[in-house]
Every structure is written in C-alpha cells, then in structure tokens.
Amino acid sequence: MTHQHQKKVVRSAKLRRRRRLVTVLAGLLALILILGVGGYLYVHYRFNQIGRVNVNGLTVQAAGGKPENILLVGNNSRCTLQKYSSFYKKQNSHFGTCSQVGGGRSDVTMVLHLDPATHSAYLLSLPRDLWLPMPGGNGLELRIDDTLNSAEDSYLHLKFGPTMLVKAIQQDLGIPISHYVELNFYTFEKVVNTLGGITIDFPTALKDHYSGLNITKAGCQHLNGTQALALVRARHLYYYDPTTGKWQYDGTGDLGRIQRTHIFLRVLASEIKASALSNPINANALLGSILPALKVDQGFTLSDLVSLALTYSHVNPGAIPTATLPVIIPNGSFHDLANPSNYQAPGSIVLPYQPNDLTQISKFLGSSATNYQAVKPSSVTVSVLNGSGVTNEAAQTASALHTLGYKIASIGNATYAGSDSEAVVSYRPGDLAMGEKVLSSLTGQAIVAQGPSNQSADVVVTTGSTVAVTPPPSSSSSSSSSSTSSNSSSSSSTSGSSNLQSVTQLANTNLWNASQPASWWDPKACPAKS
Fold first, then answer.
1. Burial (CB count <10 Å: 0-12, 13-18, 19+), residue 227
2. SS3 of 313, please?
C-alpha cells in the first residue's frame, strides 16, 4: 500500500468516526430537546392545575436574591370534604358539614422563610387562637383563624379572606409575605393515602373525640389519610398514663397540636422523599393528589416555582428548623390550658408576649428583619391612651416612656375594642420600625398595629393592664428631663417596677415559648430500620 493510499484510508477512518460522533451528539441533543420540551409541557400542565386566588398587598421580593416568606395556610373548609372525600361522612360527624359550618378558617397558619444566600429554610407557626388587631377594623381584634372566614363579612363590615390574613401578619407581626399557598382538608388526606399511608411512633395510646383520633396502643402505627388528619387536628387530646392506669387530659390545645404537626410534617417529608421522589410514577401520583386542590396567589408564576425548586433542591424538608410564635394564655380566656371542666372553646385566645415575640420574629427573619434598633427614641413622638381603665395608667406609662427618651405628644383615654389586658402600639403607614421600637420598650401582652396616617403622633400606645415599660439599663441613664417632675418620675419608676414584676410572674406560669419541648406522649418518627 502506497503512502498516499494509507493517508486516504486514515483520513476516511477519521471522517467516519467524526460522522459517528456527530450522529451521536445530534441524537443526544435531539433526546435532550425532546425530554426538555416534554418536561416543560408536563410541568406547565401540572402548574396549570393549581388554583389561583387574588391576594392584595403582598410584599414584592427584593432584587438580588434576598430572602422571602411564603404563607402556608391549611383551610378547614368542610365543603371540600363533602364534595370529594370518600370518608366525608365520618369526617363531617367530627368537624361539621358544609351547611352547618359556613366559610373556612385558617386552621393551620405557617410562614416559610427562604434565604437564597444560604440555601436555608425556617418554618414559623402562628397559633390559630392568636388575638390580633384587624387591619381597617378601628380597634377590632379577632383570632387570626377568623381572618380567612368570609362568612363574617356581613356583620363585621370588613372584607375577610386571604388578603385580610396577609395584611394582619404583615401589619401586626411585621413579617413581610411574598406569596400565599393554601391547602384544604381533602388535599392533606389524599396525599397521605397516595403515599399508601404513613407510619408514626406513639409512646402511648391517644384519643380525641372531636377529631376522631383513636390510637389504642403504643408503638409504631400505620395511619391512613383520615387517621392522619384526625391526629394533626387533635386539640382536645387525652393520653393514657400507664403509671396510673388512667386517661389524662393533655390540656395544651392548639399549641400542643402545633408541636405534633411539626413532628408529623417531618415524618411526612421523609416518607415523600423515600417513596415518591425516588419513583417518577409515585411522584406523578403525588402531584396529581396535591396540585388540583392547591391554591396560590395570582402572582406566583411557573418561573417562581422552578426557581424555588432549583435553589432549594438540596434542602432536607425533614430537617427544616421549626418554631412557634411565643404567646401567653391570659387568665380567664377559657383556653385549653385552663381546667378542662371550665373549657369553653369559643372563648379560647392567646396573646402575643413581649419581648419574646419581637425577638423570635427577628431571629426568624434574619437579615430581612425590620431594623427598629436603629431608630432613636428621641425621633419618635408618642401619644398614650388608657385602654384598661386602670387609674393613672396612661400617665404612668407616658412618664416611663419619656424617661427612655421618647417625646410624649399627649395623654388621654381610649375607646378600646380589644382585650383590656393587651397593649396595642399603633403606627402610621410606612412607620413599622417606629412602632416596633416602642414595642421593644414594653414587657407583657403587647402588639403593633397599623393605624391611620392622621393619628395624633408617630406612635399611639393604647395601654393594657398586664404591660409594663421596660426600665432603662441603669439608674444613671434614667434621669428625668426638665419637663417631667422628679416626684412624677419617682412614682412612675416605682409603679413600673412593681408592674413589671407582676407581669413577669404571670408570664412564668402562662407563657408558651417558641421551642417548647414536646410532651412525652406526643408521637415521633419510628426508629430507622437496620
């Protein structure tokens, strides 16, 4: 073979290899394109199954990959059970029918904080009995679960629904909400059934007549959707005490239920990861169970969903830290923590407690929290109104705030529609930081609320009988100014210290902390199989 012929053979072989390589690459590219288009069409199809709800006033996420908060709501509407669930007759016997219980309430309210900088998540639960000022309600206060109930529109002359719930959380708690996501009873039940049930460990037998929960023995139990729903809805729980051989009342009501829900969600997340996400068929079935009954705000786009999935794909849902907003159970509120013989469900409320609430929310929001610490008291004018009827309470509160450096604009009496034990710190629209600055100077049952733009001062404090002004760090910094007499300051300081002591004593017995330890009888994850 001549040298020239050898060169032609080598050139032909290279050309054939190059053609085969091009063919393979073209085939791979075609496959990627087909899968990509098919994947997009599938995702688009599934995304279009999600329902939409108009929510006004959402906070637009700041540019540059800043943190955002997604409001997660469990709607307890009975109508979805009656329409869809094969178990609705059993469930309605416990929770009431669609015709018996109008509207729907936010039976579960959680805020998911997502930080793209750290690829981390944090879940904060808000108790359903949390007592908050209603935006636009002129002092009216209700439980947070009522904000979703449109059945109350007619007689309270306010527009209830997702927008009211979002406004209450943003204005009263200072938590900005970027998106709204809502599930209902039926969705939760169906997800568990799609997974084939869920296994969870019960340290002892549990029962709740109202929710239908009936766990008859200790150990790992396999629950179907109806049983799982009964567990996470149990607020009137009894547990069997093997040491006494008797059934005992749990007494923690919704607050204990939140803890059990956090535990259950961790177990559920692990089940989903193990049995659904590892199998495309199971994953498809799971999406088919969730998405048609899911509702999101009108601004939640497909690109938002894809971005969240990509950014937080490595987050372990079962390891997301959880907390509950600290609250205090006021005396006489007939909450479950009171004697069960005196229990009155319609009157159950819990109140925000400072400084615990403000501290927990700042921790939850991290770098996106309101920088109220930077506000100087001397830049804030404050009017103080007596909201409890306690003699001289407004004057003493104003004097104590003046000692801290705030400018007192006026003192008077309030016509108050809320709890006389709770103080409300009202701020002008856009001045949340000022409101939180004053709130940080109070100890006890207190909350901020957005007031009208024409209110009498930057901040208006309506006093409560269980709230005290936090004294300055040292006695040397509490010298009174020339506008306040030394006798008045001395009287106020003594009264404030006494009130602060009584407020602290009350908190020690009735306060529910953010990371309250679970009770020994609460369920937990089953031990990992070896």
1. buried
2. coil
Residue 79, pLDDT > 70, answer no
Q: For residue 129, what are the β-bridge partners?
A: none
The pairing of beta strand 206-208 with beta strand 246-249: unpaired
> The tokens of 479 are what?
């010298």
For 244-294, the pLDDT digits (tens) are 999 999 988 899 999 999 999 999 888 887 776 677 888 888 888 888 888
The residues that bridge with 423 in the sheet, in sequence order, are 446
> Phi/psi of residue 157, each to 5°?
55, 35
295-297 vs 179-184, strand pairing mode? antiparallel
Tokens of residue 379, six digits: 């830049």
More confident position, 40 or 226: 226
Percent of the chain, pLDDT > 70? 74
For residue 163, pLDDT over 70 is answered with yes
Three-state DSSP at 194 gives: helix
Residue matched to tokens 């300051």? 489
Distance CA 321, CA 110 (A): 13
| Contact (Cβ atoms closer than 8 angstroms) between residue 139 and residue 362 | no
Question: Of all helices (H) and strands (E), which one includes residue 32?
Answer: helix 3-47
How far CA 315 is from CA of 80, 115, 280, 476, in Å, comes to 31, 11, 20, 50
* pTM confidence score: 0.83
16 class by beta-carbon count within 10 Å (0-12 exposed, 13-18 middle, 19+ buried) = exposed
Tokens for 287, please give them: 């999406």
How many other C-beta atoms are found inside a 10 Å radius of the C-beta of residue 497? 13
How many beta carbons lie within 10 A of that of residue 477, not counting itself? Answer: 11
How many secondary structure helices (H) and strands (E) does the chain include? 14, 25
**What does DSSP assign to residue 74?**
E
Instruction: Give dist(CA 238, CA 247) in Å, integer.
Output: 6
Type of residue at 454: N
Domains and CATH numbers, the chain: 51-332 (3.40.630.190), 372-469 (3.30.70)
CB 436 within 8 A of CB 448: yes
pLDDT in tens, 305-315: 888 888 888 88
Nearest to 107 by CA among 261, 214, 2, 299: 261
Residue 194 amino acid letter? T
Q: Contact 267/525 with Cβ under 8 angstroms?
A: yes
The letter for the amino acid at 369 is: A
With a cut of 90, say whether residue 205 has pLDDT above it.
yes
Q: Is 451 within 8 Å of 383 (Cβ atoms)? A: no
Select the more confidently predicted residue: 259 or 346: 259
Q: Which residues contact 36 (CB under 8 A, 6 or more apart)?
A: none
CB within 8 Å of 303: residues ≥ 6 apart: none
